[in-house]
Write a structure and sequence with these properties.
By secondary structure, this protein is α+β, with helices and mostly antiparallel strands. It contains 3 helices and 10 strands; from the N terminus they run H-E-E-E-E-E-E-H-E-E-E-E-H. The two termini are about 25 Å apart.
Length: about 230
């Protein structure tokens, strides 16, 4: 897998179809602050982002449709030589009646992985998808000054007919056993979600944990730059 392909694969783990916050009347808008892994903590991983993502949708809350406009930030960090990566997103967490109305923040575990990873891989590679997701264990990491629990999952990346993806180490009959790490953190007025993954044949658990521990939020993003 070449560098451009790896960054494209990971960086397009998108959030289309996700609405942010809904008020009682009219159009509702919300904006997240960017999150990033600083350059000095990336361990050689290539960065793509943070980049803004505008999400405009009509959602239904309590039987009432509302127009929602949400500004979200995404970033991806890839190690093409090991086919390993971390995807990081900062999305608004505005609450209505004390409950977050962002569908993404309501998900956890396999549901969150399927929503984020499957959709992103589908966008990047056509018919790729993550399947057979099962939680195996959990680890603890210090993120943004607090100890956080990171569930660890096993899964299978179905690479379908994607030719370049067939170069992934461990690929057999169109499938690659992978490990997935899911971090969900509320910080200030946003929710930070990080999904790390690597083939089971690659030892990268410590790298992914270290990358997650280095997450900073909020960060400044230069107008002409996509790498904070």
């Amino acid at each position: 897998m070449n560098r451009r392909r790896a960054l494209t694969l990971i960086g397009t783990v998108g959030l289309a179809g996700v609405a942010g916050c809904v008020g009682e009347n009219g159009e509702v808008t919300a904006t997240a602050a960017p999150a990033a892994i600083p350059a000095g903590e990336r361990q050689g991983y290539e960065a793509n982002g943070p980049e803004p993502m505008e999400i405009n949708e009509t959602v239904e809350i309590a039987g009432v449709s509302r127009d929602v406009s949400v500004s979200t930030w995404s970033a991806a960090y890839a190690a093409p030589e090991s086919q390993t990566g971390v995807f990081l997103v900062s999305t608004p967490d505005k609450k209505v009646g004390g409950i977050s109305v962002n569908p993404l923040t309501r998900l956890s575990g396999a549901d969150l992985i399927v929503r984020v990873i499957n959709q992103g891989l589908g966008q990047a590679g056509g018919d790729m998808a993550v399947e057979s997701i099962e939680q195996e264990t959990e680890i603890t990491a210090s993120v943004l000054g607090e100890d956080r629990t990171i569930p660890v999952f096993s899964g299978v990346l179905d690479i379908g007919s994607n030719g370049s993806a067939s170069e992934i180490e461990g690929a057999e009959n169109g499938e690659v056993p992978i490990k997935l790490y899911v971090l969900s953190v509320s910080h200030e007025s946003d929710v930070l979600l990080a999904v790390g993954f690597h083939p089971e044949s690659v030892s990268a658990s410590e790298e992914i944990t270290s990358l997650m521990e280095a997450i900073e939020h909020p960060v400044e993003v230069d107008a002409g730059s996509t790498s904070a």
